[in-house]
Amino acid sequence: MQKAEKPALNLSTESIKGQAAEKMEHDLALLEAALYVAGRPLNLNELCSVLKTRSKNKVRKFAKELIKAYTSRNTALEILELKDERYVLQLKADFTPYVRKFVNRPLLSTGPLKTLSYIAYRQPVSQKRVVEVRGHHVYTHIRMLKEMGLISAERSGRSTILRTTEYFADYFGLSHDVAVMKKELKHVFEDYSKQEKSQF
Amino acid sequence: MQKAEKPALNLSTESIKGQAAEKMEHDLALLEAALYVAGRPLNLNELCSVLKTRSKNKVRKFAKELIKAYTSRNTALEILELKDERYVLQLKADFTPYVRKFVNRPLLSTGPLKTLSYIAYRQPVSQKRVVEVRGHHVYTHIRMLKEMGLISAERSGRSTILRTTEYFADYFGLSHDVAVMKKELKHVFEDYSKQEKSQF
Amino acid sequence: MAAETVKKPFYLCPPWNILFDFHKLERLTPWHVNIAYLLTSFLEEMEKSGQIDFRASGVALDSSALIYLMKSKLLLKLEEPPPPKVAQDFLPPPLFLPLRHELTSTTIRHLLEVLDDVLKSEGLVHFEKVVEESVLPAPSEILPQLDLYLMEIEVQMEKLYAALVERVKGAGIIEFSTFTKGLSRLEAIRNFILLLFLAQNGKVNLWQDEETEEIYITIGDLKLAEGGETSA
Lengths: 200, 200, 232
Prior knowledge:
The complex is a heterotrimer, with two copies of chain A (about 200 residues) and one copy of chain C (about 230 residues). Chain A is α+β, with helices and mostly antiparallel strands. Chain A is about 60% helix and about 15% strand. Chain A has a three-stranded antiparallel beta sheet with strand order 1-3-2. In chain A, strands 4-6-5 form a three-stranded antiparallel beta sheet. Helix content of chain C is about 45%, strand content about 5%. Chain C has a three-stranded antiparallel beta sheet with strand order 1-3-2. In chain C, helix 6 (about 145-170) packs across helix 8. The model of chain C is unreliable at about 130-145 and about 225-230 (pLDDT under 50). Chains in contact: A-B, A-C, B-C. The interface of A and C includes residues 110, 139, 173 and 185 of A.
């Protein structure tokens, strides 16, 4: 960032340069803010919406600038560019072992997590079916999961179809392709149940 | 941070200085990592455990150093020192409106937040009273606030008593002592109403 | 044939004929019918004549049930409850949460652990509706259609159930007195009748505290801490 180098002079070109630098600094901070609170990869469209611009080029440039700033600071956090021009702010992997113990809040309590796991496994699945299997209290869960961006709901005729989102896949490290994801889930699930059985 | 200034020379004093700077940089990064993953204020003991030191002085010094680094960088994030020497990493409030939509937690809308501030201000308060003052829809709020760990409910005879949790106090950087917290809240509310007035 | 039509059974005369005439039944005001009197006198009359006719008894019983339903339906014309009165107190402004990223501890392993549970319970849910075959043959044509009335009641039941679910946020307990607070006595009675229907369908459980006489309505899956007795 340029702030420290900003001159106190008030010459007109200098002042324009200063304004531009300040604007850029603010835009970089906006991107950083979005990546920080999202805690997940954001794509160019999402980042465009933060900067209220349609220019993907501009956002791309700024994202790269932000990556550079983080790299030069050399702190515990990093910004990475992922496949399909998605960007993520995350903890550098080296630091995980030292601070793992501070991660003790679950993403969801057991009830909503059960509902989420069922939707992931059976998706696309009608809300009606989820309610039949899980009971009427899941309406609250479904609402919460939607608010957290873990599932999406879509009206289809008279029923509502639920499926997991890309954020869900990112969070659990699963494929974005639903067919592949379900296979992955099935595999892990089968391995898991085998392990469970062998333990008892 | 000093990395850019690290000389390539291998003179013994220079190299010792460099090593010290590097060690310090690493320690600062460790503190940053802990604050980043915790997402809540950490106290000196917790920070000591990250640096594997018993010297609170050292941790205090480093924490202040980290705050200075964040301030000079002038980005979207800030590290604050709260009451009782607790430290927290968070988004600067100015950025909240721009990135609220990326938060992957059930972000409370104004309604539940009003219920929360009422409970905080009047605690310990009976659920019945909260319903009387805020209306029947607050049952949903109360449930949400409980699920988020911001309030706790306790049966007392035939009524349910609500109060805020330590997590709540941490979240807002308020004292754990209820009497003190209420005074702090009064200030917050006064500031808020001043802001409101100045805006309109 | 002619002789048979002339000599019509006693129950096709007033006052019992009302139980055997679909069109009349449709038009009457149910409050004007004393079912207990009609049925008692009908039985006495049949015993007197010595002609025990089970078909006629069945139809009389069915019609009586219908009149009860009509009475319930009149009771169940639900009105919107008045908006709750809001007590006065200082309402502080909302507390906006500072935004902090927080790594969460839930892993795919946790997801799979609970999935196991859910899939087990899925097996316990039967999706094919059990077709109930009636033991008795279909009612004769003189019986009016009850479906419409039942549907009405079902709509009201659904509304009430939705209101209950809303009030307890999916699952929970609510006192009958709390639920019907502010309603007139008649409306409370209507709600109570609907609750009985809901309880019969297993949608809610009702239980009463013997000391306070308070009725508790439980909705959804509840783990009752002290194993409170539930009875439909």
